[in-house]
Amino acid sequence: MAVAKYNHAYDMAKIGKPKDKSEWGMTPQTVNAYYNPLQNEIVFPAAILQPPFFDPSADLATNYGGIGAVIGHEMLHGYDDQGSRFDAKGSFANWWQPADAEGFSAKTAMLVEQFNSYEAQPGKMVNGKLTLGENIADLGGLTVAYDALKLASGADFKDPMTDGMTQDQRFFINWATVWRRGFTDKEMSVRLVTDSHAPAGFRANGAPSNMPIFAAAFGCKAGDPMVRSDDQRIAIW
Ligand SMILES: [Zn+2]
Predict the structure, then answer these.
(1) How far does the centroid of ligand 1 lie from the alpha carbon of residue 131, in Å?
(2) Residue 68's pLDDT is what?
(3) Quick one: pLDDT band at residue 196, thresholds 50, 70, 90?
(4) How far is ligand 1, taken at its centre, from the CA of residue 160, in Å?
(5) Which secondary structure element, helix H or strand E, spans residue 125, and what is its range?
């Protein structure tokens, strides 16, 4: 309560003063990252720049599947249902043409459906609408990180098969690794109705199940649980 009181007073004292653009919304020791549409900035505190997200001695695939996908995720927030409402200067002004918004709604409606179909606790489903922005950012962020991995690897890349795994397998395995997270049942039931992020396990599986490169990496066939059918497969960005 004392911390809440302190933080409230700290925020209220800002009213009427010029904005401090150097201020961060997270502490350095927070394992998280964010996109701030008001300044069109992405922020990565020191604590997320360590394993499993980032390791200077790890192979490219591991880093692109970890921090690379997180960086992609934060960038994509500028292009999700919220970020589209802010222009390049951070002003509240929608910069999309009506046709952009229509196409976007049609594709994101499928993503809402996908996450609505996940049962997190007996009888309790994930809320696809509440978690939409985060799920758009995961799908687009993972896709752009994969493209970046291929660019970084170069055209004449030869897969070294690290620990018996291909580069693509290691990319997706670290994406899953960064989502190892647990909650008590009570905390989970609160989060299902308040958290704009889907439970971690659904984030680990949700985006890759839309990506044909995931299926190819692990030899999945049509009809397998991690392969969405062609008419269900979603690619937004
Ligand atoms: Zn996010």
Answers:
(1) 9
(2) 98
(3) very high
(4) 32
(5) strand 124-125
**Where are the domains positioned within the chain?**
28-218
Catalytic residue from among 80, 134, 138, 168 = 138
- CA 158 to ligand 1 centroid distance, Å: 33
138 is catalytic: yes
Average pLDDT, the chain: 95
Q: Is 150 helix (H, G, I), strand (E, B) or coil?
A: helix
Q: To which residue do tokens 């993503």 refer? A: 111
Q: What is the three-class DSSP state of 85?
A: helix
Tens digit of each residue's pLDDT (9 = 90 or more) over 115-127: 999 999 999 999 9
Domain 28-218 matching CATH 3.30.10.20: the answer reads no
59 carries an active-site annotation: no
Distance (Å, whole) CA 166 – CA 32:
28
Separation of CA 77 and ligand 1 centre (Å)? 7
With beta carbons less than 8 A apart as the criterion, state whether 103 and 211 touch. Answer: no
- Helical residues (DSSP H) of 154-211, grouped into ranges: 167-177, 185-194, 200-206
Distance in Å, CA 187 to ligand 1 centroid: 20
Residue 143, both tokens: 């896709």
> Does the pLDDT of residue 156 top 80, yes or no?
yes
Model confidence at 81: pLDDT above 80:
no
- Whether the CB-CB separation of 220 and 214 falls below 8 Å is answered with yes
Q: What proportions of the chain, in percent to the nearest 5, are helix, strand and coil?
A: 50, 5, 45
- What token pair was written down for 110? 């499928």
Residue of 59, 74, 100, 187 marked active site: 74
